[in-house]
Design brief:
The protein has a single domain, classed as Ribonuclease H-like superfamily/Ribonuclease H (Nucleotidyltransferase, domain 5). It contains seven helices and five strands, in the order αβββααβαβααα. It has helices at 3-8, 74-80, 94-111, 124-137, 153-161, 166-172, 185-211; strands at residues 19-28, 38-48, 54-63, 116-121, 145-152. A five-stranded mixed beta sheet has the order 3-2-1-4-5, with helices on both faces. α5 crosses α7 (185-211).
Amino acid sequence: MSEEKAQEFIPFGNLLRGFCPVVVDVETGGFNSSTDALLEIAAVLISINQDGELVRKETLSTHVKPFVGANLEPASLEVNGINPDHPLRLALDEKQALPIIFKPVRKHVKENKCTRAILVGHNAFFDLGFVNAAATRTNIKNSPFHPFSCLDTVSLGALAYGQTVLSRIVEAAEIEWDNNSAHSAVYDAEKTADVFCKIMNMRNQLQTIKNS
């Protein structure tokens, strides 16, 4: 890290009790993390800028090959538009795919002087369930994410805007939304990250006003 970038870097530290928020979205072949395929995963790293605001830093993503015997529900594939057999997907086995996400997340956690990553998602229990199931199948024992705690933008959106659907929360937050790009892990993760950052920044602004 250069001296200039080191001066700009602000670690999360104890902002969230030592947890480092990482926004995750998965696309799958169904709703059951034990039986249905993980097909795509994206993770957005969050940073703090010089104004003390949470912002998107970097997006990590990979396509994933269905594990042997994985179930693929046609209805789920119709929604996310994924063809698991497409030759240009360049998908990786779960054991190869997870480190592409986990390794940079661990580094991000360490740089931010945090103890562990906490998954942020829209219906976060769903994403965390698939991440945990894939880690178990591949015998990866050191997932950077807390095994059961998570932060959910469904609840945050309901609190801040009275909305629970991601597209409606995004619109209420006056963030651009493109229906044609939705249900891509990268797009949904980045929009979820934008929502999370905006709501957290609103909270921090209110706290600043309260303490002034």
